[in-house]
Design a protein that fits this description.
The strands form 2 sheets. This protein has a 9-stranded mixed sheet, with helices on one face. A 3-stranded mixed sheet has the order 1-3-2, with helices on one face. It has 2 domains: 73 residues, Roll (Ubiquitin-like (UB roll)), CATH 3.10.20; 186 residues, 3-Layer(aba) Sandwich (Rossmann fold). Helix 6 runs antiparallel to helix 7. It is an alpha/beta fold.
Length: 299
């Protein structure tokens, strides 16, 4: 008899729990979304993403959930739509236990501003290769890159060079912008006016900048800061300078199957720096030496 009573009590408890679960589920089906909370995870830099902007995006796609049944909210669809917004990098959505839709968004974080000659457009690029159109309402201080990126060479291939320069705060002050002719001729324009620096490809960057330091400290002071139109670091153990003259400077023909091609022997000095056919060059007064000293900690 006692065992039977215990079984009946246990059965009643199970029925009550099941009924409570069914009732709770039924009630949840009738709950409506009370509010949409937007959290911008990285708003400590340039803020061009706001709650109102995200709300308008939801409204434009007819998925704004406030006042709608919680059971009808498809958080995956909301994430997919917001992920396609060019000004957002990532989005996570969930419904809280207070029946609020929470949107945790990370705004687009560019690593470069691109002037694409091939596409005739200007845009920002993040580390995932996502593009965001430039908007006059805000300015983001990132490296500027110029070139034709409609082919196989994409802007993100410059990241080793950008990362190398950005890792040294003194070098950041030396580089004003980057320009790309092809994958074997990546150049940067120094803040020192008068020439550009051809880095070649993305290999051996540490060695190349050491050569540039040597060239700036040993050769340029005697030749003058405005003596060369281009300083090339492409080849091992040498720096090739193109003199500022009316002669057409030599450019090695681009071969995609060969990473580095040396210039003709007569254009390269045996001293491992640069060759030219002038004994002297003008030495205009400039603050370039100070810039180089700061960039390379020259003595």
């Amino acid at each position: 008899m006692k065992r039977t009573v215990q079984c009946l009590i246990l059965l009643v408890i199970v029925v009550l729990l099941a009924s409570a679960a069914v009732w709770a589920d039924y009630c949840s089906q009738l709950e409506v979304c009370r509010q949409v909370d937007v959290v911008i995870l990285n708003n400590d830099s340039v803020a061009f993403v706001s709650r109102n902007g995200i709300i308008k995006e939801l409204e434009a796609n007819n998925i704004y959930p406030e006042g709608k049944l919680v059971s009808s909210i498809d958080t995956d669809s909301i994430e997919d739509i917001l992920d396609r917004c060019e000004y957002l990098e990532s989005v996570e959505c969930f419904v809280s236990n207070t029946n609020r839709l929470v949107i945790a968004a990370r705004q687009f974080m560019p690593v470069m501003r691109v002037y694409d000659r091939g596409a005739g457009s200007v845009y920002y690029v993040n580390r995932n290769g996502k593009h965001m159109a430039v908007d006059g309402r805000y300015h983001i201080d990132v490296p500027v890159v110029e070139g034709d990126f409609t082919g196989n060479f994409k802007p993100l291939r410059l990241m080793p060079l950008l990362n190398y320069v950005e890792s040294d705060t003194s070098l950041v002050g030396l580089v004003s912008m980057y320009t790309v002719r092809d994958s074997n001729n990546v150049c940067f324009v120094p803040t020192i006016c008068g020439h550009i620096v051809n880095v070649g490809d993305m290999s051996n960057l540490e060695s190349k900048f050491k050569k540039l330091k040597l060239f700036y400290n040993k050769v340029i002071p005697s030749k003058g800061w405005d003596a060369y139109t281009e300083i090339s670091l492409k080849w091992d153990y040498q720096v090739v300078g193109t003199l500022r003259s009316k002669r057409t400077p030599y450019f090695a023909p681009y071969n995609p199957d060969e990473d580095e091609q040396a210039p003709p022997l007569e254009s390269v000095g045996i001293d491992g720096t640069a060759s030219d056919d002038k004994k002297d060059a003008d030495k205009p007064k400039s603050n370039a030496a100070a810039v180089v000293k700061k960039a390379f900690n020259a003595n």
